[in-house]
Amino acid sequence: MTTLLTSELRSELAPESIDLQTILAAWNEATDRLQHTHEALQAEVRRLSDELEDKNRELARRNRLADLGQMASHVAHEVRNGLVPLKLYLSLLRRRIRDDAEGIEIVGNVDAGFRALEVIVSDLLHFSAHRDPKLQLLSPGALAHDLCQSLQPQFVAQGIEAIVEAPLDLTTTADPDMLRRALLNLILNAVDAMPQGGQLHVTARTTPLGIEIEVADNGPGLQDDALARLFEPFFTTKSTGTGLGLAIVERIAEAHGGQVLAANCPKGGAAFTFCLPHRPLTPSPTEEI
């Protein structure tokens, strides 16, 4: 009798036991899914927080650059306006003392100082200029050849061999004046890195993302602490200069939707790569009509 009752009790409890095990298994599975979802959400929040922090830093940097640009533009215009009468008076003075060799030499030194000041004013104006690129179809190779040809006397005087490896049939869309300014700054920066002479390499190549123009030298290379600050306005490792040359290059690259990269070469020296994305040449409104 007792055995019969136990068997019946087991048969009655078995379904409930199975249902409880199913519920517990489902509960554990749901708990695991919630835990994974929670961890994924935490990771996404951290990523978005880091991204927001980066965006805020970039916004703050751009605001500082805008303030610096306005200040630089004001100072540059005031200095340039003040240079006009000074250069005129210097020219009149040179005529009056044309027979005085010592006086002419002194005037020449003053004139050289004015020219250096004009270079600084030019850098300030380029740094503060904000305009959209006027895109044209052009050859970066032809531009590089023209620049190196115009700088050939300086290369010869400084013992620098300029090597341009850029096919003339390689074309891109860019603002020719802005691109010329950027490449000139990069080339002059490389020249400054080789006061005792060396080799300057300018190469242009196409990539799946766009066009890359690289300016490399075999100078001493870049220090790690300088690499992080190269494109900051007014930062320079030179005894002379405004520290705006590379900042102008970066602004020009960003205006074209590209970027400029800096790195040390494996065999010594430094390389700056100006990256331009592939952009279609859209016709102007007058051309569409």
Write the SSE topology.
Elements: H1 2-96, H2 101-128, E1 136-138, H3 140-150, H4 152-158, E2 160-165, E3 172-174, H5 176-192, E4 198-206, E5 210-217, H6 224-227, H7 245-255, E6 259-264, E7 270-277, H8 285-288
Parallel strand pairs: 2-4
Antiparallel strand pairs: 1-3, 4-5, 5-7, 6-7
Helix pairs in contact: 1-2, 3-5, 5-7
Organism: Anatilimnocola aggregata
Catalytic activity: ATP + protein L-histidine = ADP + protein N-phospho-L-histidine
Enzyme class: transferase
Commentary on this structure:
The protein has 289 residues and is an alpha+beta fold. It folds into two domains: 1-130; 136-277, Heat Shock Protein 90 (2-Layer Sandwich), CATH 3.30.565.10. It is 61% helix and 15% strand. The chain is built from eight helices and seven strands. It has helices at residues 2-96, 101-128, 140-150, 152-158, 176-192, 224-227, 245-255, 285-288, and strands at 136-138, 160-165, 172-174, 198-206, 210-217, 259-264, 270-277. The strands form two sheets. It has a five-stranded mixed beta sheet, with helices on one face. A two-stranded antiparallel ribbon has the order 1-3. Strand 4 and strand 5 (210-217) form a beta hairpin. Helix 1 packs antiparallel against helix 2. The chain is elongated, with a radius of gyration of 33 Å. It starts with a helix and ends with a helix. Residues 1-6 and 284-289 have low confidence and may be disordered.
Strand order in the sheet with the most strands: 2-4-5-7-6
CATH superfamily of the largest domain: Histidine kinase-like ATPase, C-terminal domain
Helix content: 55-70%
Distance between the termini: 105 Å
Query: How many strands, what sense, and barrel or not for the largest sheet?
Result: 5 strands, mixed
Rg, nearest Å: 33 Å
Mean pLDDT, all residues: 81
- Reading off the top of the CATH hierarchy, the class of the largest domain is best stated as Alpha Beta
